[in-house]
Structure formats: C-alpha cells, structure tokens
Amino acid sequence: MRVAIVASGFLPVVDGVTVSLYERLKVLSGLGHEVLVLCPDYRVIEAVYPSWREYQGKILPGVQVVGLPSERFMGVEFERNLTVGARGQLYRELAEFGPDLVHVDEPDRIFLGMLQAVGVGYAREKRIACVGFYHTNFIDYIEDFLPLPKVALSKQVVRGMQWFSMLFIRPVFHAYDAVLVSSGVAQERLRQLGVRNVVCDRYLGVAVEAFENAQRESDYFRKAHGLKGIEDRLKITFLGRLTPDKGWRFTLRALTAWVADPANADWVRRVVLIVAGEGELRGEIAESLQGLGLTVHFLGRVAPEAVPALLKNSDIHVTASEKETLGLTVLEAFAAGIPVVAPAAGGVATLVRDGENGLLFASQSVAAFGQALSRLVVDGALREAMGQQGRQAVMAYRWESVVANLVKTWERQIARSNRDLRIHSKD
Asked: Sheet containing 178-181: which strands, arranged edge to edge?
C-alpha cells in the first residue's frame, strides 16, 4: 500500500502525536508499505530543535519525510503548523508520490493554518480515499491558549467561542471519508460536536518491547541525568509538555495543599519530583515549587527512546490532563510497570481502572488528588500490584496490533472508494 500521511508535526518535537506517528511508521516500514509523510519544517526555530533535519528524507525503508512551510501555532514559539504557503508544495508532493490513500493527522489543527480540509481536494480529483485522525481536543484548548486576558473569559464566553469555532471545524471533519478516533471518549466528544463520520478502534499504542528491555538500576538517575543523592527516594514523575492544557495550574495547587498537610510531612522529605518535558510554564512551575520543601528536578525534553528507562526507574506517574483523547504517557507508565494518578476525566480515565492499575481523582479536586497520591506514596505493595496490572492491560496496545487495526481500516476505505468509483463509472 502507498499511503500519504499529512501530519501536524514530527520529531524531534516530542508529544503524543509525533511519537505515535514515528512508532506507526516503524511498523508500516517493517510490513513493506510505502509511506510519504508531509509535515511542518522547523528551520525557523532550529535553535529549539537543532536536530530536526535528521528526521527529514528517507528515515526508514519505504518512508520518506518532507518538511513544508510552517508558522507559529496559537502564539506558542516552539509549536509549528502548516501554513497556506504550503498548499502548492503539498499538492505537488502528493501528485508525485501517487498514494492509494491520504491520511491526515489532526485535520482540525492543520485547517487553522492552511484554511482548507487538507488532502481532500487532491483525493477527490484522483478519486482515492482520504481519512482524518482526531488526535487532540483543539476546540477545548481555546481556554488554555487563546491570547486574551484570562480574567475576561468566563466559562460561558469560552463555551460560546468553542461553539462558534465548531461551526467552521465541523464541515472540515465531514469533508473526509471518515474521521478515526482511538477511544470512546473521543468518539463521544465528536458526537457532541455534531460530527457524524466517526470510526472508532484501537489505533494508538505503545512500544511495549522497549519498556520490557529497559532495566531498573539503583543509580540510574545519576548515570543518565547527573542527579545525585536520590537513589533511595520515591520518584514521582511528571512526563509531558509544560503547557496549560496539561493541567499544570491545578497540579501546582494540589501539590501545595499536599505539602501543607501535616500528615505528609515525613513523605515530603522522602520523595523527589521528576519533571520531564518543556514548555511555556516551566518558569512558573519552578517558581511555584520553590519553597515547598520538595526536591524537584527538571529534565527538560526527554527523547522518546529514553522514556522507557526513565519510567522504569520511577515509582509513580502523575498527570492532571483532562483533555486527552487517550493518553500516551499513561500507556507508557503501564508498560514500565508503575501506577498512575490521573483525573477521572478525558481519555486517561478510559485507561486507568481505579484501584487496579492506578487511582483516579475527581476532576479539579485538590483533596481527592492528595488522597490518591498519599495512598500510593505510603503503600509499596499497592504500587507493585498496580504496576503488574498495568503491564497486563497495556499488552492490547502493542504497536503491531494497533497498526494492524489501522491498516484494515485503510483497506476498507480504499475498497469503498474503489466501489464508489466503479458505480460512478457505470453511471
């Protein structure tokens, strides 16, 4: 099969979309498929991503990556999006490659830059299948990233803006033959937004083998990150972008309350927070955590290949993100055999079985967060049992399995397109 994938981003940017795309490409390459990836280039922010050119060109057998003109996205310096100026080159690349199907990751995000349902025009002209993949709840992110004074945005105003935005975005989704989602939560969210052409299956996964091969070492953090004196401490790890959409402002309030509770005084001295990621809130997070009495280490961006060892040598993974369509870091924590503390909201709640492989806390509840964290901090046997349950749960998300689901869906869409073409030809 020849597949063209139009993506909102690619490595060395590290997030759920880019890491998932790369893992998907490795499996597709191994299966012998031919893939063209069209994504933003990062030349204008090369100081942030100096290695971006290493992920261009033929990166795997049968896989070619081409960077297209991009611009800043939603005012965030290190986030790029394809721009209107990429239209001509994108069409030429598609025409030269001649795909059997066009797959577009995050078509709503790309629409905001290119002002079109990208790939659809080419697919209709060539009468081939074209699908979109709904990765991220961008409509819900308006309240996190909109460049307006936060005090001026009531919940009613935000909801009104989201509704108005969907008037433009919904037709974009409907322009595709199908919009793929990887969780019931994402499917329900699109249903609420009035999107009808949704196909749900297990399409996202985790590189389980990489986590199975990673080793737990007593001095891992000293050797890998130069951190000394924390070998005997309990490691609580936060993995992901340091941006508003990841729930960091709630996390800071919740940690402040947890530290202030006298019942946790001894544990405050015995735990260490590991923050792996980068983003606009790093300064605010560091400043807020100063003076709490917690030991905190910021690792910055961690390469995808280093994540298995990082989590394998951690004890608890914490996330407060309520807007995930699934939750890659949760799957990674399960693969590493460590429990998760997460909100009972969004896609992460579909992965965490409360009391079995992790603990869920009520949305925006500081008290419930503290109770969940304390329960795992004090009970090593519970952490071990939950870690084992996580390892079992994640087996269904091996990349080989979920890519097989994706390929079957692509094949069905191609067959449907061919059938429609035959009917049209008879007419």
From this structure: 57-60, 63-68, 34-40, 2-6, 101-105, 129-133, 178-181, 198-200
